[in-house]
Amino acid sequence: MRDLVRAEWHKIWTGRAWWGVTAAAVLLCVTAEAGLLQQELAKTPGGGDARAITSTLVQGWFMVELAAAVIAMLAVTREFTNGAISRSVLLSGGRGRLLAAKLIAVTCCGAVFALGAGVLAAVSPWVFLAGRRQRPEWTATATWTLLGVMLVIVVGALWGALLGLLIRQQVAAILVLLISTWLVGEGLLRLVPAIGKFTIDEAMASVYRGGNDHLLPIPWALVVLAVWIAAGTVAARALFLRRDLP
Question: How much is the pTM?
């Protein structure tokens, strides 16, 4: 099993796609951080609360979750697109073993992205506030925000892989991920908060302290995330084990 997981791990980092997605995510985070900083500084004539600014700058790195999800999704759907999935099943000794190896590998991939984002998030307050009157003030809230950001990145990678296993077609899977992330969750939260707060994206927002009043408390958001991942795993496993492979 160890060799199988190692093989799936190498598949994730094969090619240049992950470089481009990662670079785009970091650029997006940096741009968003600059905008968030200006918003926080504009809230108070004196320059803003240093504690709130620190937590906000840490929180901005949650967008790495989308990059982790896309990379995990590409790694899974690539084999369906090029027809290599059947050969992978034969070499792995069964569909169940291959599925388990893929999920372990993408979870480890998410952990790598979480660690990288965690480091960048932790140092970002000192980078963005360099040369300003305000100085970063690290608090317990900033620590929990950082841990929440790292957790949702791991969950995002696993969720991206599950969507890839369910949809199988690369372009369609990415479109579903982007639409659900940017439109469905946020739209439902604004129109029907009682339902929208139970979407996986808004549950993630609760965990990294997104700041919306309609979001679930963090303990309940963790339960919702667990339910979404469990349901996605059951559905992906059933489909992968029973449906014909290309």
Answer: 0.90
